[in-house]
Each structure stands twice: as C-alpha cells, then as structure tokens.
Amino acid sequence: xxxxxxxxxxxxxxxxxxxxxxxxxxxxxxxxxxxxxxxxxxxxxxxxxxxxxxxxxxxxxxxxxxxxxxxxxxxxxxxxxxxxxxxxxxxxxxxxxxxxxxxxxxxxxxxxxxxxxxxxxxxxxxxxxxxxxxxxxxxxxxxxxxxxxxxxxxxxxxxxxxxxxxxxxxxxxxxxxxxxxxxxxxxxxxxxxxxxxxxxxxxxxxxxxxxxxxxxxxxxxxxxxxxxxxxxxxxxxxxxxxxxxxxxxxxxxxxxxxxxxxxxxxxxxxxxxxxxxxxxxxxxxxxxxxxxxxxxxxxxxxxxxxxxxxxxxxxxxxxxxxxxxxxxxxxxxxxxxxxxxxxxxxxxxxxxxxxxxxxxxxxxxxxxxxxxxxxxxxxxxxxxxxxxxxxxxxxxxxxxxxxxxxxxxxxxxxxxxxxxxxxxxxxxxxxxxxxxxxxxxxxxxxxxxxxxxxxxxxxxxxxxxxxxxxxxxxxxxxxxxxxxxxxxxxxxxxxxxxxxxxxxxxxxxxxxxxxxxxxxxxxxxxxxxxxxxxxxxxxxxxxxxxxxxxxxxxxxxxxxxxxxxxxxxxxxxxxxxxxxxxxxxxxxxxxxxxxxxxxxxxxxxxxxxxxxxxxxxxx
Length: 619
Fold this sequence. Notes:
Low-confidence stretches: 157-164, 611-619
Radius of gyration: 30 Å
Number of helices: 22
CATH topology of the largest domain: Spore Coat Polysaccharide Biosynthesis Protein SpsA, Chain A
Helix content: 25-40%
Largest sheet: 10 strands, mixed
C-alpha cells in the first residue's frame, strides 16, 4: 500500500444552509470541527502536506488550523470568487499543487478511520470512496463495475433526469485519491480546459466523469459504506452526522430528545405508537395525487372541518373541535381548567400543561395501576376537584377502564358538578363497545379527547379532536384556536377517510392480533410480569435488580432497538417498568428474544444489564 504524503481540502464554502455565520468546514460535530476531524485522519495515515482552499471567512479557517497541524505543513489558497463558483474552480486554483499522489477531500465531509487506507490499497490511477446509494442522498452518484471500476458518473441532478434507478448505484463520499501521473497527464489538463471554457460553476466530478468514460479502468471505486461518514450540507445532515459519530450513549440521548423522526435512523422503533396497517396504499396514492394542491392552497376553516370529521366518526359536527393533534387540545385544557384531578400514571403531557397548584395527582394502585371507581371518587371529592382527566386505555399500562365504570364515575362526578375528560386515543384497539362516544347524550359533563395520529397511522399529519355534548364548552374551545390550525394535507385526509372505514376497522383487527401475540411472547420471558393490553403497546415489569433505563440502553446498544422506560412517569418504581410498542410480528419476536437474553444475563450479573449505569430521556 502506497503512503500518500499530500492532501488538498476544498474548504471555501459558506454553509448558509446550516444557518450559522462561521465557515462551513469549522462546523462542530461532537465538539470537534469537520475540518479538524479530516486533518486528524490525514495525519494518521502519514500525510505530511495539506493545501487548504479557503474562501468564506478564510482568516477564521487559517486561525483555527495554523501553518502546521499534527506534524503536517499547511498552506492556503484563497478563492476570491467562492460565492459564485463551484468546486471545480476551487480545485483549479490549487492546480500548481496537483503534481503528486494526493487525497482530495471536500471540506464538508466527516469521515472516520479506515477510509483513507482503503483508497490507498486500490491500484487505479484515480480512486473514489463510495457508499451504496439510498433515499435522501444528494450529489454525485456512480455505477460500479464488477472489477471495481467506475462505469458511469451521474453528477448532481442527472441521475433523476436520466431516469436512473437506485439499484447498483453508489454515492460518492467526496474523498478521493488521485495519483500523480493521472493528475499530470489527464486530470490537470482536462480541469484546465473546463475552466477556460467557462466552467467555473461546474463540479470537478465532471472531469472525472469524462475521463472514466474515455479511459476504461482509470477511475476506480472503493465501497466504504460500512465505515462512518457523512456529507454535511444542511441541518438535517448535521444531525445525522452527530448521530453517526456519537457513541451509543450519545446516540440514544440524541434520539430521546427528538420525540420523533426515528425512521431516519437505523433503529427499530418500539417507542412511538403506530397503527402499522393504516393508511392503505390506495389512500396514500390519493393523498399524493392531490399533494400539490393541498400544499399550495389554504385549507378550509373550522366549520367544514367539523363536518368532515363528523362524517368519519359519525357524530354531529356541532359537538366537535378539530385540532392539530391532541397535544393542541391538551394545551388548551391546561389554560382552561382549574382544580384538576389527574389519574396517574397517565400521559405525561397532561401533567406538563398545568401549574402544580392547579392539579391533584390521584395515584392508581399498583402494581397494575387499575382505576377503582369508589376509591377514585372519594379522593376526587375530598380534593374538591372541578375536573378529572383519565386516559383509557391508559398510557403506559395499556389497560382500559371498563366503559360501565367510566359511566358510573361520570354520573358521580356530575353530582359534584365536576367535569370528566377521558382521553380515548387508543380506544379503537380495544374490543368493540369500549368507547364512550355513543353515550355523550347521557353525560353532559363528559369530554372526550382523541389523537387520530396514533390509531390512523398518520403521526406526521397531527390530527386530533375534542368531543362533547356541552355545546357551550365546545364553543369556548373553538374560540381558543386560530382560524387555520389544520394543514391542507390533513384536510384532504379527512375528506378521503370515510371511503376507507372498512380498511380502518380491518387494520385495528390486525393490530389487536399482533398485540395479543406480542403479549404472549413477553409472558414467556422468565422474570417478567406482563399485563394483558387493550392498546397497541404492552406494559412490562422487570425483575428486581434490573431497571428500565438499563434495559433501554442495552437494547439500543446491542440490538438497535428503541423502546421506552417509565422512569419519568408519576408511579412508584417507574424505573422497573417498560412501555413497549407493538410492531410487526417479526419485530415483536426479535424484541422478545432480545429482552429475554438481557434479562437472563442481568439476573446472573451483579452489575445489572451490561454492568452500566441507568440512562433515560424524554417523557
């Protein structure tokens, strides 16, 4: 393997899409800039001379690096046209340095150990580091021949315009090895012609593309997809790079703080709660067909939305408040109700929106945390509460309060002039007849809150509603909402939904089937206590000596499974419980097997799961 002694780093970019003011190449990833990370990797493989092509805030880059770095001599080439030119021009400015074997590195690429060595092991005159192309990748894409050569370049948007598919294509990582003879005989003259012909806004990959087409075998490719790397163009890329280069603890902490978007990462999400069988493909296709119109036009106001939703759930429109997810309604409840009794454990968002002085937590009795109507009523009466909030099925227990018990409680609270708010966000996963919606006429003090996002599998749309026969209360809630609180895509979804009622009912049947199988799988794990669920998740109590935060960390670190502990819930020994979302049968089996292995190992190891300290995040 040849030791390469020289490198050119193109670091003139502004980084405007990152939202900062500093040089793009000095953007930190875990406290260390992209540029310094690249320099560290170059020094580690024996590079002794680095040429930095700078432009935006060039003095800041020079001050951050200096004239020597880790035993390497550093020189600078300044582009005075960095705002109006592209990387071909930046590289052309450094043309006097293109005389020997060198690594060519883009200043916005983070990469780890091993990548440069792989390039140096390839014998082609020019070698590109590549990774298998996947959805979301932008920039230059190449096809790779069986002998490791580049068959064809697709620079920028050409891949889409030429109708190319993704199969067999690789994204260039933008780290290359160019050998001296290739630079002198082919690349240098071709780059010079490109610039002289006015190609100052072109990519240097255009030169590589032409040479690969004209001289078969001269441009090679090395698959580095198994190594850590990321090209940072915008904030989404930066978040992905931070994730890619974090350790397991940092990655888990980052994910827990996101509260969503886990699909962008290589994890199995047993944390968030979905209906994986809805919406069906036909509904998604109809949404896609109207996407542009839904995007560019204003949605309708409340009156029409109420009618649309009323047709879905078969309730009068005047009883409905349509919201941007149940969370919008919960926020309004927090500003509207006073002297509220909260059944805990429950959905933490309700606790979060009230002032501590305005709420009384009524602890449901463990270990299963079921609601006893007599005891609960006594505590509410003693506290003088004017409103009660209950989640059924409960979150995290997944157990519903029987409808007859809720109706009894509602009548007793009515005698105390007390409002009952029931969050039924998961009731569609219960056996038929559990919802209180058909009883509204009999209970004027009843308010139902529901998130549609979970049961209809559209978390990204943020749809929810409040339902009550108390029309004055409904009017007060509507008055607290903006004119347009529902986006156009969500409106279109509501318009389409009645056509798919049977598909929705069938999807809930499939969720119940998978959930019941998951429950049985978890029951078979030695040491666990598991309660029969009514929603699409299962509450699990771990054996003594094993904590939820430890298990969450170990599942993520060892199996790339994301799940949720109950350490942040208002419940005794919450750290002993997990709330596990039901997913596909195969994923559920994998989860049960992984959890069983961890629990078995932990009960035999005094230090606990993995011998690590607990960690958890989120609510």
